[in-house]
């Protein structure tokens, strides 16, 4: 009887230890994908600042915080669902769930709580149009992209990229309570920028995606088709990036930066298309990937700078 009680106590202790998370605050921050969140916050801030109306600074701060938290919630739910493939890729195997620092159910609860809270607060404090757009963005990223498209089609990033393009539109709606042509253009800039940006990375990480069974374009269609698509989308992206200048809500500085940067982007995309083998090909993809981040930042930074300087 004593042995049975002792064994039961040991089992109970083991279950208790298993239910105690080893997560630290930094692990929960990592679940939010802070690097992605920083881009979300910046593009949303630009959308908020250049919208043709005013918003109380406190409400503006609440809107940006809710958009950031909603983006972080999407990242946590993405990591919860993708934990099985994250374990297989060198780029993601150190994330909190595959590394064993956060349990999947904790990440799920964390993501759902932040999702509901960010949408509710944005709706109650600012307006329900922006809250609805935020809710749709979270749904789109988690359900449409992560659960449906990512593992089923090589066009996953083309369609799924919409999720990352919504933040400036949400912020614009927070100020104006409308969706306008200008906010749609802000959306389209990121939407068209996403495929060449991520396909350049996919060329560098194709072995990871193949090991995890993710049908990224280089894995399914091959590197030649991927290079063709990068060049095509780079060409299609150019008029969209210049559109704010044409429509008048981007001024001379924006026109110069958008057109000049697009020329560099196209040249780098052409290099990716031209260089097909070995280290030169990898270097060309890495250069395009790096410049693409800089180019998007510059586009939004110049729009913000022109507004702050009243140009």
From TrEMBL:
GO terms for molecular function: protoheme IX farnesyltransferase activity. It is found in: Cell membrane. It comes from Methyloraptor flagellatus. Its EC number is 2.5.1.141. InterPro entries: Protohaem_IX_farnesylTrfase, UbiA_prenyltransferase, UbiA_prenylTrfase_CS, UbiA_sf. GO terms for cellular component: plasma membrane. Its main location: membrane. Carbon 2 of the heme B porphyrin ring is defined according to the Fischer nomenclature. Pathway: Porphyrin-containing compound metabolism; heme O biosynthesis; heme O from protoheme: step 1/1. The chain crosses the membrane at residues 36-55, 61-81, 107-125, 131-149, 156-175, 181-204, 230-247, 253-273, 285-303. It is a multi-pass membrane protein. It catalyses: heme b + (2E,6E)-farnesyl diphosphate + H2O = Fe(II)-heme o + diphosphate. GO terms for biological process: heme O biosynthetic process. The keyword Transferase applies. Belongs to the UbiA prenyltransferase family. Protoheme IX farnesyltransferase subfamily. The lineage of its organism: Bacteria, Pseudomonadati, Pseudomonadota, Alphaproteobacteria, Hyphomicrobiales. The keyword Transferase applies. It is an enzyme of class 2 (transferase). It comes from the Bacteria. Keywords: Cell membrane, Heme biosynthesis, Membrane, Transferase, Transmembrane, Transmembrane helix. Converts heme B (protoheme IX) to heme O by substitution of the vinyl group on carbon 2 of heme B porphyrin ring with a hydroxyethyl farnesyl side group. This is Protoheme IX farnesyltransferase. Pfam families: UbiA.
């Amino acid at each position: 009887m004593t042995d049975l009680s002792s064994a039961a106590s040991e089992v109970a202790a083991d279950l208790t230890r298993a239910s105690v998370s080893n997560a630290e605050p930094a692990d929960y921050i990592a679940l939010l994908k802070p690097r992605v969140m920083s881009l979300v916050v910046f593009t949303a801030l630009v959308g908020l600042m250049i919208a043709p109306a005013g918003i109380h600074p406190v409400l503006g701060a609440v809107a940006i915080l809710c958009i950031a938290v909603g983006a972080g919630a999407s990242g946590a739910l993405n990591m919860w669902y993708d934990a099985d493939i994250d374990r297989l890729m060198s780029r993601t195997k150190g994330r909190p769930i595959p590394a064993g620092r956060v349990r999947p159910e904790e990440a799920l609860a964390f993501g759902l709580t932040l999702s509901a809270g960010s949408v509710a607060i944005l709706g109650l404090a600012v307006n329900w149009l922006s809250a609805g757009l935020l809710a749709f963005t979270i749904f789109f990223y988690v359900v449409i992209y992560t659960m449906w498209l990512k593992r089923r089609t090589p066009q996953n990033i083309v369609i799924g990229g919409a999720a990352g393009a919504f933040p400036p539109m949400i912020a614009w709606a927070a100020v104006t309570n409308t969706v306008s042509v200008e906010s749609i253009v802000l959306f389209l800039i990121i939407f068209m920028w996403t495929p060449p940006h991520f396909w350049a990375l996919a060329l560098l990480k194709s072995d990871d995606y193949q090991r995890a069974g993710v049908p990224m374009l280089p894995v399914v269609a091959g590197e030649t088709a991927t290079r063709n698509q990068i060049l095509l989308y780079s060409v299609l992206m150019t008029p969209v990036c210049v559109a704010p200048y044409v429509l008048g809500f981007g001024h001379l500085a924006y026109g110069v930066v958008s057109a000049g940067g697009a020329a560099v982007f196209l040249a780098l995309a052409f290099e990716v298309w031209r260089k097909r083998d070995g280290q030169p090909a990898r270097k060309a993809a890495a250069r395009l990937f790096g410049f693409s981040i800089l180019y998007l930042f510059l586009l939004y930074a110049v729009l913000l700078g022109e507004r702050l300087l009243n140009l």
